[in-house]
Write a structure and sequence with these properties.
67% helix, membrane, transmembrane, 113 residues, 6 helices, 2 domains, transmembrane helix
């Protein structure tokens, strides 16, 4: 695997953990007015924690969902000079083009913009 791919997976994992922690905090704050609901959350067993985490994620999706914004992608090959490109990305433009030729068949766009 490429180091960037591993870093993306690690960041995604950390984001999901933080998201779950944030959701639990939101529910605790909502439940502070209703002590019975707060007790139910604290008394849940570890075997049902996966179910409650999924429920929390669904609730957060309902609350926070907003319209996605797509920004234009910059053309970094024309934006930066050879020296600036190398300093910014730690690779020369020729190296990036070579690597791109190797993996371009495996790349796919995620969105249908």
């Amino acid at each position: 695997f490429f180091p960037e791919y591993i870093a993306c997976i690690l960041l995604s994992f950390i984001f999901h953990i933080l998201l779950i922690i944030g959701i639990k905090f939101l529910f605790i704050m909502d439940a502070s007015s209703d002590s019975d609901q707060y007790e139910v959350m604290n008394s849940s067993s570890s075997s049902s924690s996966t179910d409650s985490d999924e429920e929390l994620l669904l609730e957060l999706n309902r609350r926070v969902r907003r319209e996605r914004t797509f920004r234009e992608r910059p053309d970094n090959f024309t934006k930066w000079s050879d020296q600036e490109f190398t300093m910014r990305f730690r690779l020369q433009k020729e190296s990036v083009l070579f690597l791109l030729e190797l993996i371009e068949g495996q790349l796919a766009t995620i969105s249908n913009r």
